[in-house]
Amino acid sequence: MNYQEFVNRVRENTGLEPGETEKLIESCLETFGERIDPTEKKKLADQLPGELGQMVLKRHEATRNYDLEEFYTRVAHRAGIRYRPAVDQTLSVFATLRDAVSWGQIEKALIRLPENYRELFGTPPEGPLSPTV
Description:
Elements: H1 3-14, H2 18-35, H3 38-46, H4 50-57, H5 68-79, H6 83-100, H7 103-110
């Protein structure tokens, strides 16, 4: 999948305008990149078209540890949107990401994250207190 196909798919699923779509995608990929192991970040970026891969690699500092709720909060802040739309729209970005890279690479990226991060890629929420519920 190339960059424009990725953007178009997210735009179709979210109903966002083009500029908003790119900002959302960048917010999601940048935040995911700061959360995952540096080695896996590089491998994930290598499977994406250049612009998308650069978004994953944007944050150079050490991996940060925070829960899924904070993940959505950071996406919302970076994208300039409210929390609830950020959750729904983030799930659209990650559904597209799931189709753009190998499942094996996604598994490797998720291995050191809390189990509820699997919700980003379509696993049902763990319970009623999940941020995606």
